[in-house]
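Field reference: sequence -> structure
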Amino acid sequence: PPPPPPEPVLASFDLQGVADKIKSGEVKKVVFAVGAGISVSAGISDFRTPGTGLYDNLQQYNLPSPEAIFSIDYFQDRPEAFYTLAKEMWAANDFKPTPAHYLMKLFHEKDMLKRVLTQNIDSLEAKAGIPKKLVVAAHGNFDAATCIETRQKVDVDELKEAVRTDTWQQFNEKHGGLCKPDIVFFGESLPHAFFHALREDLPDADLLIVMGTSLAVQPFASCVDEVSNMTPRVLMNREKVGEASEDLVKIAGWQRARGFLFDGEYQYRDVFVGGDIDASAWRLASLLGWTADLERLVGKTEEAATAEGEEEKRKMKEKGAAHMAEKIAKAEEANSDDVAR
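Structure field:
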């Protein structure tokens, strides 16, 4: 029979146990692995939630699977599907980081953040104030763009405008082929930084926190298996994902398990925290005594949103005033013509 698992590395398999581990001083290098679920409360749809996910919203294109929207073959065959998504994602410039993003920022402020591995292409980690050098965008982002035919860089702002105005066909003709933001499609290689993180950052971590991902796409899903056997692993998600087969564990042993072990006799380090991810972020911050810090960061976002709203109102008033002045001028001009006649 396989050997029994080690003694538990956490006092309890919940957020309290995780917080106690952090407060003990044993945790100094935290790696986060995050997906679309942490950006949903910012207003960005995820890919699979029934009725709300981007997959559901793109059904008019008869996608064979949610992942097809990021397939290089599908893009070459039906680019309009991706450009519909791109139009929404570029609107993410108006979206603000969530408490989950700011939780990661807090770990940075506490000098405990080793790395953020993100599947997201919205760049909200940077907006939260996490230094870009600490973020590995495994699937790229919208910060630059390339023509896939010529391999030449194109102006990302011009592509953005072409997508916004549905003139992307003319834009592509101008640049010699289909153009897309520098996000990684299926059929393309992930950035070198991701594989460096797998080799160097994850084995060096003393806590892994996974948030808002289905762990359905490789090689990102393999992140959970690259930390050491004694490193605690936390999943904050609406449902359990990435679990190891308990039957296989019983045959091959816990050392060779691929995935989380949340239940049963082989659980010794994995914690599942279900429900709303932002609520879990607030709960962990509270247990760590960081509530005021998280309120400070989230409050900055709310203040910025309020300021932006006021600025937009001001612009609308100015635009309205200018429009009214133009109407008055035209009316006066017409009146002068009548008088002259």
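Note: The two ends are 107 Å apart (CA to CA).
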